Amino acid sequence: MLSLALLLFCLAAIVWSIVDAAVRPDSAWQASGNSKVVWLVVLIFVPLVSLFLVYAVLAGGLLSLVYLVFIRRRVAASQV
To answer: Cα–Cα distance between 5 and 60 in angstroms, integer?
Structure first.
């Protein structure tokens, strides 16, 4: 049951990260010193490539958490 909850959490974090990164304006990304295209490719590509691995969703979830905790904060601060 715990593993199912963890997988669902990771899937939700992946979707949230992709949507959040996509809707942020390009100007906010540039002001924060991060690349919107790079982060979108990473957030989409890594979970898809790792589908063939045992820990696919965990890898995507970990990257999503990195985005949500570190990158999103910088981009949001630059957006204001």
So the answer is: 15
Answer whether 26's CB lies under 8 Å from 79's CB.
no
**Mean per-residue pLDDT for 21-29?**
94
The model carries a pTM of: 0.76
- Domain total for the chain? 1
Domain limits for position 75: 2-79
Tell me what the pLDDT averaged over the chain comes to: 85
* H or E element, residue 28: helix 26-32
The answer to whether the CB of 71 falls within 8 A of the CB of 57 is no
